[in-house]
TrEMBL record:
Domain D-isomer specific 2-hydroxyacid dehydrogenase catalytic residues, every copy: 16-318
Single GO biological process annotation from the record: L-serine biosynthetic process
GO molecular function: (S)-2-hydroxyglutarate dehydrogenase activity; NAD binding; phosphoglycerate dehydrogenase activity
Domain D-isomer specific 2-hydroxyacid dehydrogenase NAD-binding: 118-294
Superkingdom, taxonomy of origin: Archaea
UniProt family annotation: Belongs to the D-isomer specific 2-hydroxyacid dehydrogenase family.
Name under which the protein is recorded: 3-phosphoglycerate dehydrogenase
PROSITE patterns associated with the record: D_2_HYDROXYACID_DH_1, D_2_HYDROXYACID_DH_2, D_2_HYDROXYACID_DH_3
Amino acid sequence: MTKLEKLRPCLEGARVLVTDPVDGLLLEALKAAGLEVDYRPGITRGELLVAIPGYDALVVRSRTKVDRVVIERAERLKVIARAGVGLDNIDVHAAHEHGIRVVNAPGAATQSVAELTIALLIAAARRLHESIELARKGIWKKVMGVELYGKTLAVIGFGRIGRRVTEIAKAIGMDIIAYDVVDISNYAEKLGVSVAHSLHDALAEADAVTLHVPLTPDTYHLMSWDEFRVMKRGAILVNTSRGAVVDSEALLWALEEGIVGAAALDVLEHEPPETEAERKLAAHPRVILTTHIGASTIEAQRRVAVETARKLIEALADARGC
């Protein structure tokens, strides 16, 4: 008998609400464990507040905000599962206060996000968006870019994604300087990269900067006025982490001053853009903006589905004393 078969009798009757689009593998795995699954992608906040008291587990991606109000309405909730990496849309502290476990799938999207990071870096260096736009208009004009070979890339945040980006960037021929708030010396030594003593030290040396940090009170607007002022003129900024890590007004200023030569962003603090600075960034000729697609690959979502389902089932079984 498999572990899942052993857990099924204990889990039968437990109800799971899924409020964002997920891969079908996740739904199938939850149902196979004997769980009753209600799939309601696009549910409104008002509908969520009405429905949540009837569920034992909740599955979300980045759209659904699980704040204290939602958590306090969740009378029988035992597990919140984030089908992805970041937990900034979940009030983890409130969940823990109410004895609710929070699980996610931190490693599942590593390759997809790393590949997008490199794609955005190359696109910014070669000004691909400008050339594509000219071609669409029938204007056959050369756009001059720069090579990445021999350039220095600052990798800010040296977790799974930052390290994978490093491996790919080194294959291109880039020199890497890494920075993190935790000790990364062992990883850096294995990958053959130098470690910066501070964020500003890393920024000052870099021809390009890529951000791979979670959104926390300490990383909110991590890249702001002072940080842009120490960067090399014309440097490239890539952000595939969280939008609020970058101060949009400061970035807009840095672009207009020529400090940042190009910015390639998969994320904004508000999605879609809400503030004047964000709207100006979206329309800026030296900004490449994608619609938060870092983990949006078939392969990543399948890995997310498998990992999320496993962790949710195990956490719910444990909460039920199975």
